[in-house]
Amino acid sequence: MASLSLKNVCKVYPNGFEAVKDFNLEVEDQEFIIFVGPSGCGKSTTLRMIAGLEEISSGEFYIDGKLMNDVEPKDRDIAMVFQNYALYPHMTVFDNMAFGLKLRKVPKDEIKRKVEEAAKILDLEKLLDRKPKALSGGQRQRVAMGRAIVRNPKVFLMDEPLSNLDAKLRVQMRSEIASLHNRLKATIIYVTHDQTEAMTLGTRIVVLKDGVIMQVDSPQKLYNEPNNLFVAGFIGSPQMNFVDAVCKVEGEKVSLSFENTTVVLPPAKAKKLADGGYNGKTVVMGIRPEDIGDSEIEIEAHKDAAFETDVTGYELLGSEVLLYFKVAGASMTAKVDSRTTARMGDHIKMAIDPEKIHVFDKETELTIT
Ligand code: ATP
């Protein structure tokens, strides 16, 4: 398998549009890297530059220390799996998987061995004689994977490979891809705009916005310590709540006020705001839906961070409930236990966990704490 290195990579399309700006990333052998970000942020463009399907405008791209910029796609030892599978309808599953090897003039018995091996890994052994139209969406997706696996490439590139599957199949294929990564010990770069896929599959996630890397970190780190407002809002579902708040520093005590509520920050967070000179300034307070509670225990535990509001929406998810409400004009969501008695239209009390508060600079949108 392989390590990848992208140094100051840029892509300017012929019409002058700068789709990827100064992209720097070191991918270690066997990593599962996810590119995630909103539509048009440059995920596919970057993947296509790695594959050699798109020219790199400036910067360098290396595989195992070897410069790849001018190496033909077929010589890069990379296999790509697309969202539309691109299977040949007139060929059997076996022939679809064998096709690339036949083109490379691999001996027949070796092709047979490799296809059967991949079919075993992907649980396709009983389907090798079928044509794609006689397969389910998930099975077709596995054949597309199989076609990549038989080549035993150094790197797998996957561009939204699950986006054509229904919700249930997506979940199933997601765990299959995770176990495939474990078994193949492969280096994988995977593009998605689905942040659940990103969080569950990736060893590291690259969050992109307008062609610029916003943060590269493990799923856990992105969730707990986002670099800025954009990453904080993009990672996590339902997304983090944001409300403008005024910071007040009185000695060691630092508080954030919004509407009729004043939340005293824990010491470590307080210090960052005091040291940053935020006294009297408006900042953006971020709190995840799961860190707002409506139970008596939570309200008692976080008395100083309690507030009252009207429930404007109620959604039962199963074991949890989403409550929608407004605070200081901002629409907010809380994810609470389904045993809650709160219902649409109720006036209720809730509390924020101050330890879980994120604070962002309103102008730079960078994380303060
Ligand atoms: P999506 O999630 O919608 O697939 P993406 O993050 O993969 O989006 P890209 O396909 O990489 O985005 O496109 C990045 C930007 O480059 C977009 O604004 C797109 O319009 C632009 N773009 C893509 N191809 C070209 C092209 N051939 N010429 C000019 N601009 C292009």
From TrEMBL:
- Matching SUPFAM superfamilies, A to Z? MOP-like, P-loop containing nucleoside triphosphate hydrolases
Q: Where is the ABC transporter domain?
A: 4-235
Molecular function (Gene Ontology), one example: ATP binding
Q: Report the Pfam families cross-referenced here.
A: ABC_tran, OB_MalK
Keyword terms: ATP-binding, Nucleotide-binding, Transport
Which GO BP terms sit in this record? carbohydrate transport
Which PROSITE patterns would you find in this protein's record? ABC_TRANSPORTER_1 (PS00211), ABC_TRANSPORTER_2 (PS50893)
Kindly give the CDD domains that the UniProt entry links to this protein: ABC_MalK_N
Q: Name one GO cellular component term.
A: ATP-binding cassette (ABC) transporter complex, substrate-binding subunit-containing
| InterPro entries from the UniProt entry | AAA+_ATPase, ABC_transporter-like_ATP-bd, ABC_transporter-like_CS, ABC_transpr_MalK-like, ABC_transpr_MalK/UgpC-like, Mo/tungstate-bd_C_term_dom, NA-bd_OB-fold, OB_MalK-like
- Which PANTHER family would you find in this protein's record? MALTODEXTRIN IMPORT ATP-BINDING PROTEIN MSMX, OSMOPROTECTIVE COMPOUNDS UPTAKE ATP-BINDING PROTEIN GGTA
Q: What is this protein called?
A: ABC-type sugar/spermidine/putrescine/iron/thiamine transport system, ATPase component
Q: Name its species.
A: Roseburia hominis (strain DSM 16839 / JCM 17582 / NCIMB 14029 / A2-183)
